[in-house]
Design brief:
Order of helices and strands: EHEHEHEHEHEHHHE
CATH architecture: 3-Layer(aba) Sandwich
Protein name: SDR family oxidoreductase
Helix content: 40-55%
CATH topology: Rossmann fold
Strand order of the largest sheet: 3-2-1-4-5-6-7
Structural class: alpha/beta
Number of helices: 8
Family: Belongs to the short-chain dehydrogenases/reductases (SDR) family.
CATH superfamily: NAD(P)-binding Rossmann-like Domain
Largest sheet: 7 strands, parallel
CATH class: Alpha Beta
Strand content: 5-15%
Pfam families: adh_short_C2 (PF13561)
Keywords: Oxidoreductase
Organism: Streptomyces thermolineatus
Radius of gyration: 17 Å
């Protein structure tokens, strides 16, 4: 029997929004699959604990406190990967916020501003810094975390939906622009997932989770690891002919 190598063997992967939820799950999944992971997020205590836990298992992990809305922070995170490992092979741009669940006409401007700033400008900052490093290094792979809200409408979440549609647009634009320079750019579009955003929404909106389960063919909420597994494949060389794709990881939600 032929033993296949790990999906991300010897790759250097940057993960944003890595302190919890899908990002923290991705750190564990990618490390298990052979990657050296550089973790970026705002909450240092959680990052330090995660890096310590990964190190106890023999994985190569480091972290840098990062606010993706600040371009300099993102450049420093990419710089840590380059300083520590000499290259950046991949990135999982996962940092994002949900904002309020409020009808559009009652949504406060500051909610719109914060969601767009984090989810769109943050993605923009990440892509620019990562692509610059990958061009210098001869290529790489990027996965952007969008949402089913980047493919279909979600009621009472207009800024979030707009921001995640923008993530899909940035993914496709970057994939088209850099394909011939050896950089693949794809996106995952998670459905209901037990992450901080959705748990917060469910707690503040009783009955919402059950309602979503009713219209999701698999009838359940995903574990963060299930999203991370899809991202790992897209970052791997086994997805070498995949770029510009937006992959729903949603239990069939958008196909209902």
């Amino acid at each position: 029997m032929i033993k296949r190598s790990q999906l991300l063997q010897d790759k250097v992967i940057l993960i944003t929004g890595a302190s919890s939820g899908i990002g923290a799950a991705a750190a564990s999944v990618f490390a298990r699959e052979g990657a050296a992971v550089v973790l970026a997020a705002r909450r240092e205590e959680k990052l330090a604990a995660l890096v310590s836990a990964l190190g106890d298992k023999g994985h190569d992990a480091s972290y840098v406190v990062t606010d993706v809305t600040r371009a300099q922070d993102v450049r420093e995170a990419v710089g840590l990967a380059l300083e520590r490992h000499g290259r950046l092979d991949g990135a999982f741009n996962n940092a994002g916020i949900g904002g309020d669940r409020t009808p559009l006409h009652r949504m406060e401007d500051d909610v719109y501003d914060s969601v767009i700033d984090t989810n769109v400008r943050g993605m923009w900052n990440c892509l620019r810094a990562e692509i610059t490093a990958m061009l210098d290094g001869g290529g790489g792979a990027i996965v952007n975390n969008s949402s089913v809200g980047g493919l279909v409408a979600i009621p009472a979440a207009a800024p979030y939906v707009a921001s995640k549609h923008a993530v899909v647009g940035l993914t496709r634009a970057a994939a088209d622009e850099y394909a011939r320079q050896g950089i693949r750019v794809n996106s995952v579009a998670p459905g209901s997932t037990r992450s901080e955003i959705t748990v917060d929404w469910y707690e503040r909106n009783p009955g919402l989770e059950d309602a979503i389960h009713t219209i999701t063919p698999q009838g359940r909420t995903a574990a963060p690891e299930e999203i991370a597994e899809a991202a790992a494949w897209l970052l791997s060389d086994r997805a070498s002919y995949v770029t510009g794709a937006v992959v729903p990881v949603d239990g069939g939600f958008v196909n209902r």
